Amino acid sequence: MIHTQFRRDAGLIRRVSSTSASQERLARVLATHDCGSRCQLHHGDMCDPCCLARLVAHIRPDEMYNLAAQSHVGVSFEIPAYTTEVNGAGALHLLEAIRLAGLQHSCRFYQASTSEMFGKVLEPVQSERTAFNPRSPYACAKLFAHTITKNYRDAYGMYAVCGLLFNHESPRRGELFVTRKISLAVAAIAAGFEDCMVLGNLDATRDWGHARDYVVAMHAMLQQPTPEDFVVATGETRSVRAFVEAAFHAGGMGSVLWQGTGLDEVAVLQAPHTAGRVVVRLSAEFTRPSEVDALIGDPRKAVATLGFNPRATPFEQLVAEMVHADMVRLAEMRAPGLVISTPEQRATSSAPAEEDHEMPIFTI
Ligand code: F7E
User: Fold this and answer.
1) What are the residue ranges of helices labelled H in 211-299?
2) Contact 247/319 with Cβ under 8 angstroms?
3) What's the pTM value of the predicted model, to 2 decimals?
4) Do residues 9 and 35 touch, judged by C-beta distance below 8 A?
5) What is the DSSP string of 202-220?
6) Where are the beta strands (DSSP E) in the chain?
7) Domain coordinates of the chain in residue numbers?
8) How far apart are CA 346 and CA 344, in angstroms?
9) Domain topology for 175-205+239-293+316-346
10) Distance, CA 189 to ligand 1 centroid (Å)?
11) Which of these, 130, 132, 135, 293, lies nearest to 205 by C-alpha position?
12) CATH class of 9-168+207-237+354-363
């Protein structure tokens, strides 16, 4: 969210009858930074072009950040049409709304593009020049949004840019993404609420950075003299397996030993008082029909032009921050008779699309 002295912020939020996890997270953000008074939330939906056009004409933003998405790659295989509508057509609806309101030369537009578009990578390190090869309905939809944003820039001279952000994490991450699933499970295991976590592909590697650092780069992209696209990444890649190891270490449980092969592989603790306890198992339930095996970004353009610092939050610090935040949360929740549900239990009790449906921010 953007704050400057003379600006007011506005956000779009979907109307749901029950309180969703993302609404609770949003409420915490607004309360924490006392931005509730500066930021007005409007009901709307990325699948409703009329409502988006009406809102843009009413708010008349000068910056718009489209972060709205069905953002879970795995879930996109189960709800491909919905994902395409929100992630792909949704961006087009916003661009058209800007044009219809006559704001094409005054409103700057940010599109949240994604490293997932590189998919089965065609170059070992991915930059702004790397060709795309998407591997999921999520990535295909995002690729449409990416190319239509460039098209509006070329066709109508709009200041419209795409941030090719690699994975960006924080303690606010949704609980179904692997980093948060791990940090929450490590905290729950340390507190004695859970025995074990169940994961999918341990060998996928990702370029993981901190969302706090990436948001600064997003804002900087809209302050440049000319509209251009940027890769935002750390330039380092780690496996899911390495994230698990770092998380147990950060949780004070020492190192883990991997035993077995394929889906029978497990991780066991090694510290003397817990030695031999199985803390990670695998299940095909969490693998994807087509996987993105390895991503690593080249952030040099963002470093040179935006002043982005890819070393601002080292990997171990990111993991420790997430694990410690979950340990604090669980400690605050600890009470007699308290039942902590697993991410999977929570997933089946609410619609998956509502898990991390982010909102676009208009700044006026
Ligand atoms: O998966 C593997 C999984 O769901 C990371 C989104 O923000 O970043 C995110 O997409 C890796 C994949 O994130 C589990 O197969 C193993 O290889 O945390 P993730 P993602 O798919 O990389 C990009 C940049 C975006 O744009 C997306 O919106 O971890 N993995 N076991 C698992 N993944 C999950 N979710 N759960 C597991 O149990």
Assistant:
1) 211-221, 240-250
2) yes
3) 0.91
4) yes
5) SS-EE--EEHHHHHHHHHH
6) 9-13, 39-43, 63-66, 108-114, 160-165, 168-169, 197-199, 205-206, 209-210, 230-232, 238-239, 256-259, 266-269, 278-282, 361-363
7) 9-168+207-237+354-363, 175-205+239-293+316-346
8) 5
9) UDP-galactose 4-epimerase; domain 1 (3.90.25)
10) 22
11) 293
12) alpha beta
For the stretch 76-101, pLDDT in tens is: 999 999 999 999 999 999 999 999 99
For 22-79, write each residue's pLDDT tens digit. 777 777 777 776 676 778 899 999 999 999 999 999 999 999 999 999 999 999 999 9
**Is 286 touching ligand 1 by the criterion CB < 6 Å?**
yes
Q: Which residue owns the Cα nearest ligand 1 atom 23?
A: 167
For a mutational test of ligand 1's pocket, the pick from 22, 67, 72, 73, i.e. the residue with the most ligand atoms closer than 8 A to its C-beta, is 73
Q: Which two tokens stand for residue 356?
A: 């991390």
Residue positions annotated with a catalytic role: 114, 116, 138
What is the maximal distance between C-alpha atoms in the chain? 68
